[in-house]
């Protein structure tokens, strides 16, 4: 029997829950969980905010652990390997996107949380292609949030070929935004933090912010004029998107990685004048997760983490719900 923590219905506190392990498929591995981050997406799953949850719900998709069993066809990993598992636990491995190593575009992905029991458990199972080797020089105790929050803000670097020549703005400096600051500063970009918090200036500068601007002060934002090659929004609230488009350079883009549930309102004229773009992306492919982990190893980049034992999981979730985690929570057995 596998021990886990599960919500029995939408919004519930998590309870101790045990379930039988399923037989491994030929291309699957079984991972003994060492640590698992808690992401806002896990809370969305617990609350059924996206209408996809099944109960008992065992969330958790920022997993670091060791492989303890492998299927008969597994060739990418071996027993004893330390690995990570993020949002996806499997792919079709037979479509144009999987063939091009863009697995995250596959229309038949399995989700670590929604397709099975996730990482708030002693063990988790996944297809070998979705399982990422953890570099030996990386501090694995803090690395879990990189597998979701980290790759979410790293993906635009790869997709849009961002270099040190680009000027980048980051809206919202929380679990995603603080990692974005670290990544884009390490890349050599000039980085502006847009935040509505009044008490983070020294911290944001230490994370890499060259400038700190209020995300709700329209006159301050407007005064910046069109200077940004890329503005990344990590928030899940509605803002004046036309205003932010006005400070994007010609051929620049406003890119969404935060799950804003309200429709994105923008004027076509805000786009046409400078041939600007609006885009969005979630997580990333295994290939790019590996690139990100190598980048983190090289530049010694880690999320700011608060550690909790699994038996403290409800305390950690409450603190995250209350927006009192700075900036990511990680559970360990």
User: What's the CATH H-level homologous superfamily of the largest domain?
Assistant: Medium-chain alcohol dehydrogenases, catalytic domain
Helix proportion of residues, in percent?
10-25%
Report the uncertain regions.
none
Overall strand count: 17
* Secondary-structure-derived class: alpha/beta
Question: Mean of residue pLDDT?
Answer: 95
- The CATH architecture of the largest domain can be given as Alpha-Beta Complex
SS summary, helix count: 11
Approximate strand percentage? 25-35%
- The Rg value, from CA coordinates, equals 20 Å
What is the top-level CATH class of the largest domain?
Alpha Beta
Kindly report how far apart the N and C termini lie. Answer: 16 Å
CATH level-3 fold name of the largest domain: Quinone Oxidoreductase, Chain A, domain 1
Helix/strand order = EEEHEEEHEEEHHEHEHEHEHEHEHEHE
**The number of domains:** 2
Q: Biggest β-sheet: count, sense, barrel? A: 7 strands, mixed
Shape: globular
Please explain how this structure is put together.
This protein is α/β, with parallel strands linked by helices. The protein has two domains: 2-148 and 285-332, Alpha-Beta Complex (Quinone Oxidoreductase, Chain A, domain 1), CATH 3.90.180.10; 150-280, NAD(P)-binding Rossmann-like Domain (Rossmann fold, 3-Layer(aba) Sandwich), CATH 3.40.50.720. The chain contains eleven helices and 17 strands. Strands 3, 4, 5, 8, 9, 16 and 17 form a seven-stranded mixed beta sheet that branches. A six-stranded parallel beta sheet has the order 12-11-10-13-14-15. The protein has a two-stranded antiparallel sheet with strand order 1-2. α4 (149-159) packs parallel to α5 (177-187). It is globular and about 60 Å long. The model has no long low-confidence stretch (mean pLDDT 95).
């Amino acid at each position: 029997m596998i021990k886990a923590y599960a919500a029995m219905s939408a919004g519930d506190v998590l309870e101790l829950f045990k379930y039988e392990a399923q037989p491994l498929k030929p291309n699957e591995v079984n991972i003994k969980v060492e640590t698992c981050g808690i992401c806002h997406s896990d809370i969305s799953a617990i609350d059924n905010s996206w209408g996809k949850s099944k109960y008992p719900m065992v969330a958790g998709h920022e997993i670091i652990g060791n492989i303890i069993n492998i299927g008969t066809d597994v060739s990418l990993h071996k027993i004893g390997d330390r690995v990570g598992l993020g949002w996806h636990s499997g792919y079709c491995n037979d479509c144009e996107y999987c063939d091009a190593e863009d697995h995250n575009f596959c229309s038949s992905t399995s989700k670590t949380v929604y397709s099975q029991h996730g990482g708030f458990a002693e063990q988790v199972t996944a297809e070998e292609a979705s399982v990422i080797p953890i570099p030996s020089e990386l501090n694995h105790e803090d690395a879990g949030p990189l597998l979701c929050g980290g790759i979410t803000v790293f993906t635009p670097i790869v997709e849009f070929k961002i270099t040190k020549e680009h000027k980048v703005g980051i809206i919202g400096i929380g679990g995603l935004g603080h990692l974005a600051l670290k990544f884009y500063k390490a890349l050599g970009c000039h980085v502006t933090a847009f935040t509505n918090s009044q008490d983070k200036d020294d911290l944001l500068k230490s994370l890499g912010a060259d400038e700190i601007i209020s995300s709700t002060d329209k006159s301050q934002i407007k005064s910046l004029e069109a200077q940004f090659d890329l503005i990344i929004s990590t928030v899940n609230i509605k803002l004046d998107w036309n205003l932010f488009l006005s400070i994007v350079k010609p051929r620049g883009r406003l890119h969404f990685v935060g799950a804003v549930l309200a429709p994105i309102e923008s004027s076509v004229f805000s786009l046409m004048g400078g041939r600007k773009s609006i885009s969005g992306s979630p997580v990333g492919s295994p290939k790019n997760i590996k690139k990100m982990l190598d980048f983190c190893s090289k530049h010694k980049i880690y999320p700011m983490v608060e550690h909790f034992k699994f038996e403290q999981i409800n305390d950690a979730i409450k603190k995250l719900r209350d927006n009192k985690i700075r900036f990511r929570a990680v559970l360990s057995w």
